Amino acid sequence: PIEADWLFVGEAPGSEEDKQGLPFVGRAGQLLNSILFSIELARDKVYITNVLKCRPPQNRDPMGEELSQCEPFLHDQIGRIKPEIIVAMGRFAAQALLKSTASIAELRGRQHEYSELKIPLVVTYHPAYLLRSLLEKKKVWDDLRFAKSLLDGSESEWSV
Ligand code: URA
What is the reported pTM? Predict the structure, then answer.
């Protein structure tokens, strides 16, 4: 929904997303659904999108030129949604949104701001990474509780 408070940004559509024309509907999407459920967010109340608007062949990493070509579309999207908080999932989303080359480990654990719009932004791992490293699930949960505390203005119990 365009009036969503939460915006989740992933990397790029995979094959299932490409088929259905919807973001995060494959295996990573199922995990994202359970992550949302665990922090009491309804999927139909949050906005989910990707940095890249087209699927890279064979799911390869996005290339710099692709990222820069899609950037104006993402920026325009964010300006229309005007979310209260952005969650950047994975390295490509985090680096593109923050115009940074830092790693996820360096970017996690604090509040950032997106662009001149100054929208609070939190960085976490990509759900596809969690499918391979389930031990990191707790960190994502911590990151999202931290994001929630920023929205609620409550004290965070966040720790790396
Ligand atoms: N991975 C992403 O980054 N985005 C999707 O939409 C699906 C998988």
Answer: 0.94
